[in-house]
Sequence to fold (181 residues):
Amino acid sequence: MRVLTKVSNLSLPYQLIVILSFSIFMAVSSQVKINLWFTPVPVTFQTLVLFLSIVFLKKKAFISQAIYVSLGLIGVPVFSKGAGLFYLLGPTGGYILGFFIVALLFPYLIEKIERSSYLIIKLFLIFLVANISIYLFGTIWLKIFLKISLMRAIGLGIIPFIIGDLFKILIASTISCRVLN
Fold:
């Protein structure tokens, strides 16, 4: 596992393999889902995979997300409920936008703390803020797409997921702490 923390030290073919692997993990994690009857947003393991990709891939996590979304755009069924541009423009498109933003910005925070004390707490807090960022993009998009109030969007796009997301953040923090130490 230690070699994966230094993806940038690998040869280009191996870097591509690791980046593509996280794109595949993202696609698989979107298919392991629980559809809730009252919301168009399913429960998936995508945030867990995203957070791990940030730790393993660092700044290359964005490339992994770009590959994942590109596959979906060309029709490969990698998203939780389908594929294509219309899926991205649908009710869960804001969450995918949030994945991009998190993959682009949060590796810088990981690099700042990876050799510090209280690492697991710092990782937990970074992943928590990252998850809140995803909620922000997802909920605003959901509000606009469904033409509902902000409170209703929060009820559909955040509240049902808080406990599960905290659990995924704890798992990601624990694994990441082990990898970085």
Notes: The chain has a mean pLDDT of 93.
